[in-house]
Write a structure and sequence with these properties.
Pfam families: ThiG (PF05690). This is Thiazole synthase. It is an enzyme of class 2 (transferase). It catalyses: [ThiS sulfur-carrier protein]-C-terminal-Gly-aminoethanethioate + 2-iminoacetate + 1-deoxy-D-xylulose 5-phosphate = [ThiS sulfur-carrier protein]-C-terminal Gly-Gly + 2-[(2R,5Z)-2-carboxy-4-methylthiazol-5(2H)-ylidene]ethyl phosphate + 2 H2O + H(+). By secondary structure, the protein is α/β, with parallel strands linked by helices. Helix content is about 40%, strand content about 15%. The protein contains ten helices and ten strands. The strands form three sheets. Strands 5-4-3-10-9 form a five-stranded parallel β-sheet. Strand 9, helix 7 and strand 10 form a beta-alpha-beta unit.
Length: about 260
């Protein structure tokens, strides 16, 4: 079955995207990336540092077959800083993707919708494939789609909280109305939550802390790979409808009637 994910003119065989922060070391991150089967990883601009090998993630990641890089604008406080970071990231990585994230308040790390929208307008004009990290706001998601963003990335819960799909009801509305891929970003803690997101109709998930902070990041990367694949398979297979009343699964009534 051909079930590739299309984002703009790019095709991806995996629906699991990975963040590359918080790992104990570069080798642990590389092992997790390989085990996860991901084809798209996001990297902060400050991790493109060829002069200091211990800080450089671009070098080792660029050596991985099938893995594409998506620079992100983490650390940007406003639209102007985000656009500048995106341009620098593209120059360094040659990637068409940018994960647009602007979260100026370190106490909650929630994305700034106004600055994100303004930055997205400019980045779309510059032919980026823009994937904005946003609150689970159906109105904002539709506005970003309308100006040309290649996908939208609503949060499941605040970054690093591990509270799962706390915004599930809003994400369902975004999915219902979207004509671009919907990627849940932030909040996922377990592979079962990733499976739920795909079953719900999300096109992909982006995971970082849940894998990086696991006791065995590579094993957790493999577990998320399985969870995402299972959720997508279930979505494509068609989930049974729910019912407010019990429905017997065996025709016991007919059997008993025949022996009366």
């Amino acid at each position: 079955m051909n079930d590739v994910l299309k984002i703009g003119d790019q095709e991806l065989g995996s629906r699991l995207f990975l963040g590359t922060g918080k790992f104990s070391g570069t080798q642990a991150m590389i092992d997790a990336v390989k085990a996860s089967g991901t084809e798209l990883v996001t990297v902060a601009l400050r991790r493109f540092n060829r002069d200091q090998a211990e800080d450089d993630l671009y070098g080792p990641l660029s050596q991985l077959e099938k893995v594409r890089l998506m620079p992100n604008t983490s650390g940007a406080m406003n639209a102007k800083e985000a656009v500048r970071a995106a341009v620098l990231g593209r120059e360094l990585s040659k990637s068409p993707f940018v994960k647009l994230e602007i979260h100026p308040n370190p106490h909650h790390l929630l994305p700034d919708p106004i600055e994100t929208y303004e930055a997205a307008i400019e980045l779309v004009k510059q032919d980026f494939l823009v994937l904005p990290y946003i609150p689970a706001d159906p109105v904002l998601a539709k506005r970003l789609e309308d100006i040309g963003c290649a996908a939208v990335m609503p949060l499941g819960a605040a970054i690093g909280t591990g509270k799962g799909l706390s915004t599930a009801e809003m994400i369902k509305i975004i999915i219902r109305d979207a004509n671009v891929p919907v990627v849940v970003d932030a909040g996922l803690r377990s592979p079962s939550e990733a499976a739920c997101a795909l079953e719900m109709g999300c096109d992909a998930v982006l995971v970082n802390s849940a894998i990086a902070a696991a006791e065995d990041p590579a094993a957790m990367g493999a577990a998320f790979k399985t969870g995402v694949e299972a959720g997508r398979m279930a979505r494509n297979a068609g989930l049974m409808p729910t019912s407010e009343v019990a429905v017997a699964s065996s025709p016991l009534t007919s059997f008993l009637s025949a022996n009366d």
